Amino acid sequence: MDIGSKIVATAAIKMALSMSRQEEAVLKKQFLEEYNVKAVAVDYGGEFITSAAKIVERAVVAAKREGVINDVHADEGAVAGAAREALAQIMPKALGLNVGGKIGIARHGDHISVSIFFGIGLLHLDEVAIGLGHRAVA
What we know:
Blueprint: H1 4-17, H2 21-35, E1 38-47, H3 48-65, H4 73-94, E2 98-108, E3 111-121, E4 127-136
Antiparallel strand pairs: 1-2, 2-3, 3-4
Helix pairs in contact: 1-2, 3-4
Organism: Syntrophomonas zehnderi OL-4
Subunit structure: Homohexamer.
Function: Antiterminator that binds to cis-acting regulatory sequences on the mRNA in the presence of histidine, thereby suppressing transcription termination and activating the hut operon for histidine utilization.
């Protein structure tokens, strides 16, 4: 079965949308057993501009810590690049506002996807959005 980028993107999105640590654990196990996809999720929050670099850093650290990527420059760069792509997709909505949510990261072979779920807050007028980035590494 060809896994490809679609199942890796699906895994990253589902991880970012998970509601609890227990659900994350179930999804991680399911993706690993069914598709040999490694996945992880991590929370974040803060003002968008000051949080952007921290979001990328949290994605790389979580991916390394959970064994989704190896401790090599190419893997770290792929996660960082995919996270920045996801951030760029949301930037017009979030600029200058507070954001919070979850980052989902998934990998199978040379496919890496990062999905970021955003809750974007302005007083009580909240908005939600998802950004998705993908990279291929050899």
